[in-house]
Write a structure and sequence with these properties.
By secondary structure, this protein is an alpha/beta fold. The chain has helices spanning 15-26, 44-56, 99-114, 136-148, 164-173, 196-208, 213-219; strands at 5-10, 29-37, 59-64, 118-120, 154-156. 38% of the residues lie in helices and 12% in strands. α1 crosses α5 (164-173).
Length: 220
């Protein structure tokens, strides 16, 4: 009898993590989605993630993390989400210090508890917002930590070297319901179209030659 492959997915309902979830499922993994509530303004992503997980009948956990010392614009209600153009090499105010390190640590705990050997994360080093915890160097270092812990668990980054357009095309091939995904850093009813995340999403769909279905649903 073939042993069941299990994986933990860091899942936010964004373009990247949703494509990664569907990719892992296509490779035969039984997936457990970790959905984080860390005080983000765009908490709409939590509801979207739960909706997608339920659609797939995938196991999921919503993990609430309290980080009262944060001063970034993604969680601080007194700071506005920037709408300026992303400057190469400059870490934007939307960077949440230690976020992916914390998330991966929770994923490790979950993976060891359910006997999963893989952790999937949708980091991307081509079209990204200069976040230092989305780089190949960071993932390599974290896998070094896992090795030091004498565990066979490894972090996998299947879309790390893909452009947003390539990720979107992969998602289309895997039947990702892009109309259910949420990317915008603002938690409004419709995407703002101005934040870095919205701009990267728009650029990706434009270069892929596909209309973003979330825009159509927002107009209706």
């Amino acid at each position: 009898m073939k042993k069941e492959k299990k994986a933990v997915i860091l899942f936010s309902s964004g373009l990247d993590s949703t494509a990664v979830l569907y990719y892992a499922l296509s490779k035969g993994y039984k997936c457990h989605c970790l959905i984080f509530d860390y005080g983000q303004k765009h908490d709409k992503e939590i509801k979207s993630a739960v909706k997608i997980a339920k659609l797939l009948k995938a196991d999921y956990s919503v993990v609430k993390v309290s980080l009262p010392w944060l001063k970034d614009s993604l969680t601080n209600k007194n700071k506005k989400i920037p709408v300026h153009k992303t400057i190469s090499g400059i870490v934007p105010s939307t960077y949440v210090p230690g976020r992916n390190t914390l998330f991966l640590s929770f994923a490790l705990s979950c993976a060891q508890s359910i006997n999963a050997k893989s952790i999937f994360i949708g980091v991307n080093s081509v079209d990204f917002s200069n976040y230092p915890d989305c780089t190949p160097a960071f993932i390599k270092a974290y896998n070094g930590v896992l090795k030091a812990l004498k565990t066979a668990i490894r972090v996998k980054t299947p879309i790390a070297k893909m452009s947003k357009a390539q990720i979107i095309k992969l998602g289309i091939k895997l039947n990702v319901p892009y109309e259910l995904t949420w990317t915008c850093y603002n938690g409004d009813k419709s995407p703002c179209g101005k934040c870095d995340s919205c701009k990267l999403r728009a650029k990706g769909f434009r270069e892929a030659g596909v209309r973003d279905p979330i825009l159509k649903s927002s107009e209706e």
